[in-house]
Design a protein that fits this description.
Blueprint (H helix, E strand, L loop, with lengths): L4 H8 L23 E4 L6 H7 L4 H8 L11 E4 L2 H4 L5 E6 L6 H7 L4 H8 L11 E6 L5 H4 L8 H7 L11 E6 L7 H10 L10 E5 L5 E6 L1 H4 L10 H6 E6 L10 H18 L5 E4 L17 H8 L1
Parallel strand pairs: 5-8, 5-9, 6-8
Antiparallel strand pairs: 1-2, 3-4, 6-7
């Protein structure tokens, strides 16, 4: 659980497209053939910057060699000139949500971007429902490299750590959702606490999703239990500890809702674990749904119904 400043910054300051700024672009773009430089600010997303400078997200990513929609505060982006933008016409198609769909899978399937779909449909979060019709902006892809799958909420460094070499795909049968029950905290803090209680493997969960208190809002922290593929300590049942992945969101959701960033990261992480790494086999459970656990975890404000619609 030792994090360097570089690790923290790369994880904590992920900009999520749901926090788009509805800025008027008409007076902000100067017609010039030269590339302009823009410094990313808090609240920015690729879609909001693209709207601001009247260019497509696809072209903005291409101009800056970006594989993902993730941008960092303080990052400098080159803004393409108007003449380069004319050939990148966006086509919009209506898509009917099917069982198992998420915003990210739809974006990958239709060569779109998560932030563009959110913005086009004025979605306040990543929750979508079977039968829902959404408009998908489809942007032309300039190369195979640009069309490759991107995992938005996990940056390259974090994603690489999740895909461990010693992954035991057969053992993981459930993904269990928890809340910490505390208003603040982080993986490192919980690790120290669990060790003080005699847990030799430290942090009981496999993943912790921060709320902006002691780690980034939506930041995903990975424990040694996942890296070493050892059993968890997140529930009372020994069987579930050996066969389920524990994901803990920092916060007391009996009193307040998880942040939008936390929900988005939970959806992406759960989908990535189930679909990409484990072949869709693990089922989602809430801690309180495990027999004889006698708990309200992860609280009444955790979006349980929506998560079960997504992941069964």
């Amino acid at each position: 659980m030792n994090w360097t400043r570089r690790d923290f910054l790369s994880s904590a300051y992920i900009i999520i497209g749901g926090y788009c700024l509805d800025l008027e672009a008409s007076n902000l773009y100067a017609a010039t053939e030269k590339l302009r430089t823009y410094t990313v600010r808090k609240g920015d997303s690729l879609s909001s910057i693209a709207r601001k400078y009247k260019c497509s997200v696809s072209l903005l990513k291409s101009a800056n060699g970006l594989k993902q929609d993730t941008i960092l505060i303080g990052q400098k982006l080159e803004i393409p000139s108007p003449s380069n933008q004319k050939s990148h016409k966006v086509v919009k198609k209506t898509y009917t949500v099917k069982k198992g769909d998420t915003i990210s899978t739809i974006a990958r399937k239709m060569n779109s971007h998560i932030s563009a779909i959110r913005s086009e449909n004025k979605l306040r979060n990543d929750l979508i429902y079977i039968g829902q019709k959404i408009v998908v902006p489809i942007q032309p892809v300039s190369s195979k490299r640009e069309s490759s799958r991107s995992f938005v909420f996990l940056n390259k460094a974090i994603g690489g750590r999740i895909k461990v070499a010693n992954l035991n795909r057969k053992r993981w049968k459930y993904i269990v959702a928890h809340h910490s029950g505390t208003p603040v905290g982080s993986g490192a803090i919980f690790d120290a606490y669990h060790r003080s209680r005699g847990m030799e493997n430290g942090l009981a969960y496999h993943f912790v999703i921060g709320n902006g208190s002691d780690s980034g809002d939506g930041q995903i922290e990975i424990s040694e239990r996942w890296r070493k593929q050892i059993h968890g300590g997140h529930v009372k049942s020994n069987w579930y500890n050996q066969n389920s992945i524990g994901i803990c969101l920092v916060g007391n959701f009996q009193k307040k809702k998880p942040s939008r960033n936390q929900v988005a990261s939970f959806i992406e992480l759960t989908n990535y674990l189930r679909s990409d790494l484990l072949g869709g086999k693990p089922k989602l459970m809430l801690h309180r749904e495990i027999k004889n656990e006698r708990t309200i975890c992860p609280g009444k404000y955790f979006p349980a119904q929506a998560m079960h619609k997504l992941f069964g």
